[in-house]
Amino acid sequence: MNNQISHKKIMRNIYGIFILQKIINPTAFKLYVAMTFAWVGTLYVSLGNVFANMQSVSGASALYKYSLSSFANTEFIVQILSIGMIAISVWFVKDVLKNNLLVQSFSHKQHVA
Predict the structure, then answer these.
(1) What's this model's pTM, rounded to 2 decimal places?
(2) 37, 6 in Cβ contact below 8 A?
C-alpha cells in the first residue's frame, strides 16, 4: 500500500515537471510576453477608435502614412509596447519556423532511413 502511494506521488511530480517544461518553453514564453504586451496595450489604446480612424485610409501608401503618424503622435509607453510587440512577434515567428523546419527535417530523415 505504501509503495502504491509513493508511486502515485512520484508520477504526480513527474507530471508536474512535464507541465512546467511545456509552460516555460522558450517559444511559449515569447507568446506569453507578446500576449501580455497586447493586453497592456489595450489599456492605453482604444482599438475601436483606431479602426474607426483607419476606415478613411485607402491604399498601401496611405496606410503606411497613417501608421507612421499614429505611432509618432502616441504616448511613449504605447510606442515601447508597439516596438516590443513587433520584436517579440518576429522572434516568435522565427522560432516557430525554425522548429517547424527541424521537425520536417527529422521526419524526412525518419522516412529515408
Answers:
(1) 0.60
(2) no
